[in-house]
Amino acid sequence: MTANSSSPVFTTQFDASNQEFVATGVFRPRSIADIADELLLLRDKIETVQGVFYVNLKRVTHMNSTAFRALARVLVDASRSRPELKIVVVASSVVTWATQMFRHLSELSPNISMEIYDSAFYPGQTFVENQSFIPILRTQTKMTWRHEREILPRHGLRNGMVIADICCGIGDFVMLVRREFNPARIVALDHSAASLDYARSVAEEFCVRDIEYTYGDASQMLFEGDQFDFVTCRHSLQIFDRPELLLRELYRICKPGGRVYITNEKNSHCLGEPRADSIQWTYNEVARLFRYFDMDVEMGPKSSRLLLDTGFEDVRIESFMVTNLDGDPQEFADVIQAWEDVYAGEMSVRRGDSPEFIERFRQGFKDHIFAALHPRGYAGWPIWAASGQKPL
Ligand SMILES: C[S@@+](CC[C@H](N)C(=O)[O-])C[C@H]1O[C@@H](n2cnc3c(N)ncnc32)[C@H](O)[C@@H]1O
Q1: Total domains in the fold of the chain
Q2: Hey, whose CA ends up nearest to atom 16 of ligand 1?
Q3: How confident is the model at residue 8 (pLDDT cuts 50, 70, 90)?
């Protein structure tokens, strides 16, 4: 069924291994007859399962009342004729109407429930979506931009392109790209409401109205495929526990012939002089701490493999070192301080580390700051920038 020529097609399918009925697209039939086949599939498949039956609406962007009533009828009837069966409707916080519409079904039938899959969907979410992550993002982009403004053209970024920055955080990067590369259109998506609020308020303050900030899950984006010339995803594949899902989505929304650009770190290679040993110890522990929360901050050198495995061609990779010599050393010291506050002050505490461990962990950051500010010192943070082309 097609809603109209410019809307995404509505599709349904049944995934037997997950006992899941998956619907996607715009669900706006003029009458029940228009969706007879979809309803029949749903009715038939409910009959085939035992235990739990999932109705996945994560990617249904619109639904009219005809569709809702028809779907609800089938689910309520099934729950009454098979009281032993549990029916779980899975929706996303991105599609707010679905939550409101389907929540009421559990009042009609106690064996129907609603699940918002992205309220807690990856282990690092509570840290990175939190307001306390904002100082990290603010200080980091300031330091990396000096390098990336020169690196980006080597990866294919040109003036006038249609660009998406996925997992945009507080939007500093899109602001800088907008100013430097004058895009035809620029979209920025993130799942942190706090970061997006911050991004929108900065844009408003600077009277910037042409950045399209979007709340969404990068692993289940509602954007149509094949539409962006250049897609960026910085420091985020390493945060999400299933980076291959994000990469598949970055690939999908990129135009054939367009490029996807990613940056990732290798935290255990952060370094400094003097006090190298203490610094080294702490950053090895940073990598272990993130691994504990299913995040891989050692991902940088794996970028080529990840891009090739996703199907990209003409993969380009380079690394750069942010250092205290890049500009005002205090700016790098601010980055390190922001890391200490969140990594030692929040994440290590959440893991249940002892006060002795946390003290030693903090000391490495303090020593890194000492090295950064020392007149004869050196402090570094290595980053890998990589990109691949989606085949034509
Ligand atoms: C380390 S921050 C990097 C932010 C920004 N790219 C930067 O470099 O400043 C990681 C960001 O990824 C976002 N993120 C992680 N997984 C996501 C997902 N599945 N969907 C949308 N955003 C996600 C987080 O909310 C966070 O803002």
Answers
A1: 2
A2: 240
A3: low
Q: What kind and span of H or E run contains 252?
A: helix 243-253
How far does the centroid of ligand 1 lie from the alpha carbon of residue 110, in Å? 36
Rounded mean pLDDT, 169-175: 97
Portion of the chain with pLDDT greater than 70, in percent: 98
Residue 2 lies in a domain: no
- Mutate which of 177, 239, 263, 290 for ligand 1 pocket (most atoms within 8 A of beta carbon): 239
**333-342 residues labelled b (16+ CB within 10 A) or e (exposed):** bbbbbbbbbb
Residue by residue, DSSP assigns 90-142 as: EE-TTSHHHHHHHHTHHHH-TTEEEEEGGGS-STTHHHHTSGGGHHHHHHHHH
CATH number at residue 248: 3.40.50.150
Domain that holds residue 32: 11-119
Distance, in Å, from the CA atom of 27 to the CA atom of 323, rounded to the nearest integer, reads 52
Q: How many angstroms is it from 92 CA to the middle of ligand 1? A: 17
Residue pair 183/163 in contact (Cβ under 8 Å)? The answer is yes
CA of 9 to the centre of ligand 1 (A): 29
| 54 is a domain residue | yes
Tokens standing for 371? 């090295």
